[in-house]
Amino acid sequence: MKKKDDFQKIADFVYEVGILRSTPRSGFWFLGTGNQSVAEHLFRTAMIAYALAYLTPEVNKEKIILMALVHDLGEGRTSDLNYVHQRYGRLAEGVAFDDIAQAVPFGGMFRDLYSEEQKRETLEAKLVKDADQLEWIASLREEESKGNVRAKEKITIAYKRLKTPVAKKLGNQLLKIAPDAWWFDKDDNWFVERKESDRKKKV
């Protein structure tokens, strides 16, 4: 079999990453409402991780973003395992990640980031894991706001998993603020009259 060059390896990787948008986050099955792909989860987790890094100036922001983006990369090969599935057995996500790392020229860096995140010893790794949990909390709040009464108990459990003070503070805000507060203000007359003169700038 002809050996692949770096461009061929990266092209394969591009298509593999695309599978994540079709890989469901299975925790929503047990929640009873909502749906999310692993790709959607990774994107918002990376944004949250950056925000936590911004609030923690001593950490490496670039490292945190990349760590957040790759932490569930292996799920394209193993699928996402929710907490019920994990109780009875984990698929070899670490093995899958090793195979991914061997398949791309920058795989060594990916493997190091994945390993660091899994050990959760460095501040960067702890922040990424907290970002992972905050993304789940935000998703649960969105389902709670739509009437899912089971989400509230799961939010309480997810909040207890947070390790860093900065994540706990952000988590508190996620619990206080409605998911649509960033765009909807019931006291804003623009939503009634739709007049440009009534439009308020959201800050």
- Overall outline: globular
CATH architecture identity: Orthogonal Bundle
Return the string of H and E elements. HHHHHHHHHHHH
Count the DSSP helices: 12
Question: Termini distance?
Answer: 58 Å
Extended strand count: 0
Q: Structural class of the secondary elements?
A: mainly alpha
Average of pLDDT: 93
Regions with pLDDT < 50 over 5+ consecutive residues? none
What is the share of helical residues? 55-70%
Quote the CATH topology. Hypothetical protein af1432
CATH class: Mainly Alpha
Radius of gyration: 19 Å
Descriptive account of the structure:
The structure is a single chain. The protein is built from twelve helices and no strands. By secondary structure, the chain is mainly alpha-helical. The protein has a single domain (6-198), classed as Hypothetical protein af1432 (Orthogonal Bundle). α3 runs antiparallel to α4 (61-70) and α7 (93-103) packs antiparallel against α8. It starts with 5 loop residues before the first helix and ends in a 10-residue tail after the last helix.
